[in-house]
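User: I'm new to structure prediction. If I give you an amino acid sequence, what do you actually give back? Let's try with this one:
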Amino acid sequence: MQSQNITPTTPQKEEIIENKELNIWEALIPILVLVGMLFYNVTYAFGDDALSGSNQFILLLGAAVAAIVGFFNKVSYKRMMEEVAKNVKSTTGALLILLMVGSLAGTWLVSGIIPTMIYYGLQILNPTIFLAACVIICAIISIATGSSWTTSATVGIALIGIGDTLGISLGMTAGAVISGAYFGDKMSPLSDTTNLAPAMAGGDLFDHIKYMTYTTVPTITVTLIFFIIVGFSIDTSGTPEISEQLNAIDSAFNISPWLFIVPVLVIGLIVKKTPPLIALLAGTLFGAIAAIIAQPEILMQIAGSKELNFNSAYIGVMKAMTVDTAVETTSTELNDLFSAGGMSGMLKTIWLIVCAMVFGGVMDAIGALSRISSALLNLFDSVFGLFASTVISCLALNVTASDQYLAIVVPGRMYAKAFKDKGLAPENLSRTLEDSGTVTSVLVPWNTCGAYQSGVLGVPVADYFFFAVFNWLSPFMTLLFAAFRIKIKQLAKS
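Assistant: Good question. You get back a string of structure tokens that encode the predicted 3D arrangement of the chain. For your 494 residues, that looks like this:
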């Protein structure tokens, strides 16, 4: 081995470690080993439960493989740990935001804000525009809950049954449900993938959401137009029956349009460019106040008290913010929807981010990310080529690693340097990760998302694939924007 030859460069004032002794194949060894291990772990070992810890440990094993490559190229252990520490430190804001998102979801549940959104959303059903209404309902619920899985497993199942009674193809209804659910999941600040993508790309949560609207709004508009046309071209019979669900929500919560004041206030803070952590903290506290005013019985139930006083209100609100809470209704279909994990529910995603930062830190320290970035820039010299390679990588990981989180984490760490070298803002990368990684996972039958949605809705992926218009159209939309240089944000000059 030749002597160590590692030099820092600072494009855009960010240190990129170069190792001239590391060739492209050595740089790719940890990536290839990681993908292989993840594929086996998800496909043959743990399946849907892979995110409970095994995937995180495999990211650490991938870091160990990268370290071995680094040792052979005379990179010190100290240098690797310094980069890992720097990487983990860079995600501090994202980790705190995730914890705050968990607490906000808890208070918005027990205050009745989320149930109120669902209650009014269910009432826009109409046989002729049933499919378009499915998209809208699932979008509203998924934005409110931040979870496409929960939306499909609750309201989605109910809509499948309603569609069946109307004589509508199960594949059509499932496609509409999934399209709306993934739109909401993608755009919700409560979603773990929506937080994960900017964390991997090095961007800001609300900047990421704002930048996603440029590709996401046209995509969901095309999707709605498609389902409106389909709805007018098919024959339906009967009327949708949702009285049971509405009664169940109404009996468990005090439903009031006044509860919309809280999300409106939070949206106002976001529009005023309030830092995300402050806006989410304010939303959590507003939700807690709303819970005390509107849902005292629920707080008493959570606290195990027979009266609402300062202590029982305090216990009820604190539990909603921090740990698993659930509100039971008379509808078993809706019970899973009315549960939240609080801050503790975000720990798996935080664990995943930390392990991804360890892998990325070691890869950066040995010069692998710099080498891969240089190769990608040489291979895909144009801006469009870089976007296209990112999309292809996300799709490939959804097929091989079989998990949407990994389709965000691995390309996110691998391409962050390349986007910076091109002078592109991190929002470009985070948006592309979501447009091609998050939403297409449900189109792969053996992916955790595809297997889950197919199993929950009782509809094979092949039957709903074409009708999940939002999901397969999203990567084409992001490539279209890249090809015509529409809303391609440059790094700010400093």
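You can read the tokens as a compact description of the fold. Here is one thing that stands out. The first helix runs from residue 24 to 46.
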